[in-house]
Amino acid sequence: MNNRQARLFAIGSTAFAAILFLGMTLDSHRQFPTLTNAENITEEVIHGKDVWHKYNCINCHTLFGEGAYYAPDLTKITKHRGEAYLHAYMRDPSKFYDENKHRRLMPKQDLSEKEIVDLVTFLDWVSNVDNQGWPPRPILVTGGISAAATPIGGNSASDTYANNASDTDPIALGERLFSSAVPTCMACHSLTPGADGAGPSLAGIVTRTQALLESDGYQGAATDVNAYLHESIVQPSAHIVPGDMYSAAGTSFMPTGYADSLTDEQVDQLVAFLATLK
User: Fold this and answer.
1) In this structure, which topology does domain 41-133 adopt according to CATH?
2) Contact status, residue 251 vs residue 237, Cβ threshold 8 Å
3) Where are the chain's structural domains?
4) Neighbours of 65 (CB within 10 A)
5) What DSSP letter does each residue of 220-235 carry, written as one string?
6) Using alpha carbons only, what angle is made at residue 186 by residues 184 and 188, rounded to the nearest 5 degrees?
7) Which CATH superfamily is domain 157-274 in?
8) What are the residues whose beta carbons fall under 8 Å from the beta carbon of 217, sequence distance 6 or more?
9) Parallel, antiparallel or unpaired: strands 247-248 and 251-252
10) Which regions of the chain are under pLDDT 70?
11) Contact 225, 213 (CB under 8 A)
12) DSSP state, 168?
């Protein structure tokens, strides 16, 4: 290739790349109203965005993968946490930490009720944007997610059922649901003993439930462990787990939509898995 040919190739390549970039940009802008549900951008959403910037939330958190990466990405936070939880958390984050065990880094911002409501509305709009699966990083609770506690038989649930994850094994299917249901159980519950997050650790849930059912403190209608686990999934406020970080005004922060989003068979499969957490 001589100098003239090289020059023409460079000019042609640059022009092609520029046209391709312009075309992709125009196509992206064409899709933005649909992808972002632009018709749902209300005054409350706009004010919530202003609250996000006013309190410099992006200095720690990220949206769509953009931010400080110092605290969890909040792109899909309203899919993992209910409105009641988020409102209570923003009013006083200290109630959601054990100051003797954890360093609480989330400051108490003293937001007004209007600011809290609109900020959650903004985050809910964000969570419904079609972001093509980005960011891929999940929100993890304190202590991370680990193998299940040891069931009868001596092996962990993961060891016992990982190689037996058939389409008919209810325990294996329940273990899959634990990480794939929407909202995912893993977003709030750890399987690590003592690692409480937005929800209590589920390690040893069977032993704790047996003790609870035998006590005078149980408020629900279940008479055995499996019934309690089922009740906790589909009627989370039937029994309120003590602690300000788990409920407010007699209402559990546990999402209430599983009775609709999961079939009866899927709930039974999830119960079957949880019943292995001795």
Assistant:
1) Cytochrome Bc1 Complex; Chain D, domain 2 (1.10.760)
2) yes
3) 1-35, 41-133, 157-274
4) 13
5) SS--SHHHHHHHHHH-
6) 95
7) Cytochrome c-like domain (1.10.760.10)
8) none
9) antiparallel
10) 98-104, 135-166
11) yes
12) S
